[in-house]
Structures are given as structure tokens and as C-alpha cells.
Amino acid sequence: MPDNPLTRTAPAPSPGIVHLGLGAFFRAHGAIYTQQAMAKAGGDWGIIGVSLKSPTTRDALQPQGAVYHALELAPDGAELLLVTSLSAVLVAPEDPSAVLAAMADPSVKIVSLTVTEKGYCHHPASGALDRDHPDIIHDLTHDSPQSSIGYLTRALALRKAAGIPPFTVLCCDNLPHNGKLLRGLVLEFAQILDPDLAQWIADHGAFPSTMVDRIVPATTDETRAEVARLSGFADAAPVVHEPYRQWVMEDDFVGGVRPAWDQVGAELVQDVAPYEDMKLRMLNASHSALSYLGYVAGHHTITDVMADPVFDAYAQRLWAREIIPHLTPPEGVSLEDYAAALRARFKNPAIQHRTWQIAMDGSQKLPQRLLGTLRAARKKGAEDRGLILAVAGWMRYTAGFDEAGEAIELRDPMADVLRAAHSGVEGAEAVTRILGLEAIFDPSLAADIHAPVTDAYLALSRGGGRKTLETYLAT
Q1: For residue 58, is pLDDT > 90?
Q2: Per-residue DSSP letters for 238-296?
Q3: Which residues have CB under 8 Å from 447's CB, separation 6+?
Q4: How does pLDDT run across 309-322, given as a tens digit for each residue?
Q5: Exposure pattern of 48-86 as b/e (b: 16+ CB <10 Å)?
Q6: What is the C-alpha separation between 68 and 86, in angstroms, rounded?
Q7: What number is the average pLDDT over the span 72-93?
Q8: Rounded to an integer, what distance in angstroms lies between the CA atom of residue 213 and that of residue 314?
Q9: For 36-52, how does the pLDDT look when each residue is reduced to its tens digit (9 = 90+)?
């Protein structure tokens, strides 16, 4: 009988990276790039993964020595990879000091993050630190942090006190100019805490912006069963992903020190903004639009949504007529080809990406994914009805029930506020209340789109998503 691959026989790699937010995406993306970079060019780049909230991932990985399988699903078959780049897994609420000690260790050169948009404790509409956020209030007065911003700043303070250079902070979440945004949040927090610390971080720190791309559905019992069938062993913590991947980052690291990611497919560039904009406004925006409108209409996966010719046509028109005209492509990239590739990826029958998963945390995603393009279109007087429908679709989703009258579990950091916006009112008044939420909508944009979003919301409420999209496509 073959040896169990989920039992380490060699020492775990020596750590050089701490990663905050050890979810499925990073384990199917950054952890694989890092493993391949170490295999290609060596270096001590093992990853200490940190779960900021729940012990679930640690509890699954720890008995396996932090080793797990990544299952790649293509339309023509599956491929299994054993991922061994994790050195250890920590759970921050259980032992904050252990996390800070790991981040302050001089062997750690990079701290990366995938904590989702809501994990940055900021106002999405303005990019400023949310000083009223409970975690930020706590972290400004306690040495043991709760937020990602608190951990980064407190760990940098420890390094400064010890005379150790700062680590590079590498944000891998879907936020525009994510490195610049995170730098601003850390400096704002540090300025409140200790102005000298803020100046040290500003002078010596590095916060390169990045763009990451790979569709990573939630792991299910079916995933675990397929991994067990292919490997012959039960894996408690596998991940599943599509074949496509992309990682673009600015080549701005403290001391120029980083893994050889560029030798295994990552792109090192001077300015990541064109790649960020392309991905956020094409992939993420259409993903969100299709998930809200499709979920409410009863479609449970993006593949199901795209199998409906009306939704498929909506996505193509959204890209061609309402998103691409407002983008500057990266050098050598055809946005039309990128849209065609997205359509093929969304249609991949092997990837069952749940619409409820994509629909989560819309209050944090909307400004980055849809509102920037909508603002540009309104300013030019360009076509924007598909974008308006996407915003109205999100509002319809927040009403808490689908077109069949089935309850929707609203998963959003502003869920209580959104429920209150719908409470006791219908239609136009709910739209007015939601557009008045300045944490999401800039007041000038809210006023500009009030009438068309109201009309779209009422059309969706009366006729449903498919019929409303048919009307949109017919004109």
C-alpha cells in the first residue's frame, strides 16, 4: 500500500511568509505559486498561515501536517496536486502573541493577505479607515489585535523596536489599488497609535499592489470524495480550482527580497492598475451581476446562469458595450479576447461556483466592482442600463427572498442595516434608503442614478430577472 501523502516525511519548509486569511483562494493560488517558486529556485519561503477568526481550517490541516490536495477541474478532466508549502497554521484569537511573534521574526520577509473586502475595516466608498469599527476601536487600545490592520501595525511596531526592517505587505484581495489602499489604512492606524511608527513605515515599508485571478469554488463533500477517489486517501482540507490562474504584482519589495514567483508564471510590473481594473471591472463585476440576478431567479451556480441564453447574452453585452469602453487595457492585452476567455471560464461545467458564495458581502464589493464603471459611464453619457440592472439586482437580493418566495440568507457585514432599509416599505422607498447609505454610495452618484435604479428595481420586482433582461436585450 502506498504511503499516505498527507503525512509529512520531510521537514516543513522554513518560513519566510506569514499569510493572514488562510481561506481556499490563497491555498489554491498563492500557496501553489510559492511551492513552485521554491522548487524552481529554492529559498526559505514556507508559509505560516493565520486564520483570523475560526479554527476550522487549522483543525482540518493540523492532523495532516498542513499538507493538502488542490483539485484542478477542466472541462476534459481533473488533475491533483499535493501542496506542501505551508509550514504551520495559527489561529489568531487563540494566541495573538504567537501570530505577532511570527510576523516579527526576522526570517519573515513578506506578510500577505486574503481577508476579503470586509476584512480591511474601511469605508469602501472613501477608502478611509473605519474608526468606529469595533475591531479598530479594540486594536487601538489593546496590544493583542483582532483586525488585519491591527496585526500588521502592531507587528511592524515590534520590528521597529527590535531594529528589524519591516516586512513587505502584500495584499491579494480584490480591491482597486490594493497596496496603496492598505498602505493608507496602516499609516492612518499607526498615526493614531504612534506618529514615529507611521513615519518609519512610510519611509521603509513596501505595499506593492497586486491582481490575483483564479476561480475557486467552496470545497464540498463532493470535492472531498473526488479527492479521496483520485488519491486513495481522505483529505480533510482539499481545495478545488479552475485551470486558469494569474498573479500580477508591482516589483516593490523591502530589500528586493521575494520568492521567484516570476519564474513560475507570475507577472512583475511597474504599474498593476490596468490589470486590476480589467479584472475587477470585467471578471468581478460580471460575476457579481450574474450572481445577484441569477440567484434571485433561481440559478444556483454560475455555470447554470451562463447556460441560460438570456443571462449569457446579458454578460456579453455588459462587457462589450458598458465595461470595455471605459477601460485602458494592459499593454499587449485584448479586452475582447479577455471577455471571450471569461465567458469560457464561466461556462466550464466542471466548476460549480455557487451564486450564493459570490453574492456574499455585496456592500463591500459593489463600490470596487461596479460603481466605478457606472460613474464613468454616467459622466460620459454612455450606455449603462446593464450596470444599473446589476445594482438593482443586488438591492433586490438584499430584500431577502428570491422570485419563488424562498428566503435568502443575507451574508453581509451590513446585513442588519440592509434589512432595516427594506423593513416596512416596498419598492421605491427601499431603493431610496439603500442609496442613502454613504458607506456604499457616494451621494452625488446616488442622486444621479436614483431614478434609473428605482425603475430597474421595480421591473425586477414585478417581472423577475429573466424577463427584465429580455427587455434590456431587446432595446
Answers
A1: yes
A2: -EEE-S--EEEEES--GGG----GGGGT-EEES--HHHHHHIIIIIIHHHHHHHHHHHH
A3: none
A4: 999 999 999 999 99
A5: bbbbbeeeebbebbeebbbbbbbbbbeeeeeebbebbbb
A6: 9
A7: 96
A8: 22
A9: 999 999 999 999 999 99
